[in-house]
Automatic annotation (TrEMBL), chain B:
Residues 411-432 are annotated as: Disordered. Residues 411-420 have a biased composition (Pro residues). GO terms for molecular function: oxidoreductase activity, acting on NAD(P)H. This is Ferredoxin reductase. The keyword rRNA-binding does not apply. Residues 344-414 form the Reductase C-terminal domain. Its cofactor is FAD.
Amino acid sequence: MRVVVDLSRCQGYAQCAFLAPDVFRMHGEEALMYDPNADDDRRDQVLRAAAACPVQAILVDRLEKRDAPAEASPS
Amino acid sequence: MTSADNLQAFKRDGRIVVVGASLAGLRAAETLRDEGFAGSLTMIGDELGEPYDRPPLSKQVLTGWVPAGGTKLPRRREIDAEWLLGVPAGGLDLATNHVRLADGREVPFDRVLISTGVRARPWFVESEAALDGVFVVRTREHAEGLQRALAAGPSRVLVIGAGFTGSEIASICRERDIPVTVAELAPAPLVGALGAMIGEVAADMQRAHGVDLRCGVKVTRLEGDAQGRLRRAHFDDGTTIDADVAVVALGGIRNTEWLRGSGLAAGVWGIACDTGCRALDLNGLITDDIFVAGDVARCPNPIYEYRLISLEHWANAVEQAEVAAHNMVSGQADRWPHLTIPVFWSIQFGVNIKSVGVPTFADEVVVTQGSVPDRRFVAAYGYRGRVTAAVSFNSAKWLDHYRQLIETAAPFPPPCPTPDQPADSKPAPVDFPGPALLAQGATVVVTGHDPSERRVTAAYQHR
Ligand SMILES: Cc1cc2nc3c(=O)[nH]c(=O)nc-3n(C[C@H](O)[C@H](O)[C@H](O)COP(=O)(O)OP(=O)(O)OC[C@H]3O[C@@H](n4cnc5c(N)ncnc54)[C@H](O)[C@@H]3O)c2cc1C
Ligand code: SF4
């Protein structure tokens, strides 16, 4: 599953790293690093982290089909 | 038909084309659908594959944590678009409203959004740029190649240019325990973006982490061996270093060449637009159906004296795309201005560096809170006695406070908002290297005498 964190909004409070530690981790004191290609098994954790983020900085795929959308195939 | 009827008809049956299918293009497409645009939507992009995110390329990807192909952007919704990928747009015809593709196809539109961004500035000698081991970092493919070279355990990496990307790469080399030399023409890293004071802090940080930082020097030549592999770099002070990987991090070139002859105000600084993201033509007139967003846009900001500012910032691309898309499907009275204060982040040597505002729009800078030696502080920038920007090192949660100071034109220097007043809080000159460059924007020639004849034509400069 695809994940993006708007790091200009992120305040580094680390709730996400607590709820989905394989996907979000702190780098140094307050910089957030995350896996933009998180394992699908972590979906529930990631959705919980996205819901808990106090500044709503975590964006997760909203497409029904989780595989690469056919519309983006090269022409 | 009233204009409201026209708008409804356009939203139902209109044709919108987006040129540049990356962050700004994708976010604009999603917003168009969110706002009820049901007509045909075409995404034109010269890269193959789905839109992906670039900031992780110089961070998560180069550390080896995430594969280069693993930064595809999440979709907020289906966009039901036709994708024309792997082929660049080669021209824009405003008389007939067509985008011309490089392969000769023509794509008609009622409204177009231009979001072609920037590309990496290559090393200036082509044969040297082609050496095995010489990289730039802008695309997924670039990051993949560099990550592989770093994983092979090079004896030394040379980073040419100590802006944000170059500094991030130096940081990753140290994290991976690879010896790294950074060569920078300015007196310190990040000087062009953040000024001399923060540059000194960045220089100390690099040296403390074992970077061989060389400032005030120019790399003159990259030397390869008989197999075409990079071996050595020569500096203008006569010294050389041996390195098997070089990363050219000399900033970007805006992708505007394809608009030559289109009549738009497009050039090396980007495509000029109003705060509604409508492109200006060469005469400075607003076009109605041509919109611009992202790194390629050059937008006036009233807070910065209406100067046309181009930003290469992620959040700017997202917000500008949303404003542009909204305006593409809204009537005149419902249009939004793009007035957000710029924000930027970078992660280097484990430190979270963030900025708000435009730090280059300043004459003074002062540390307002925290401690520079601990690399946990905020510095505020001022121009003629008002706050115009702030930069934080590991103190990001304070930036909203500074954003408010900027938005309300608060007096500079601002009082320290916390008890941890720094020991030395006297404003210092900001010291940017020569603002003269900014004056190079005059690229037109005025012709004709009657108001109906007077027009400008472009005078292209060689750079
Ligand atoms: C390595 C790296 C690290 C970064 N880190 C940060 C960071 O930490 N913080 C931050 O705020 N920002 C960062 N950025 C900047 C951020 O990624 C950009 O601001 C953002 O990508 C801009 O999006 P865009 O859609 O405007 O342009 P781009 O992402 O440049 O996309 C433009 C697209 O248009 C395509 N194109 C160009 N010409 C044509 C043509 N003629 N026809 C068709 N398609 C064309 C391009 O190939 C590209 O796919 C980083 C960028 C890079 C490269
Ligand atoms: S929860 Fe939100 S604000 Fe906190 S670290 Fe994660 S992304 Fe940042």
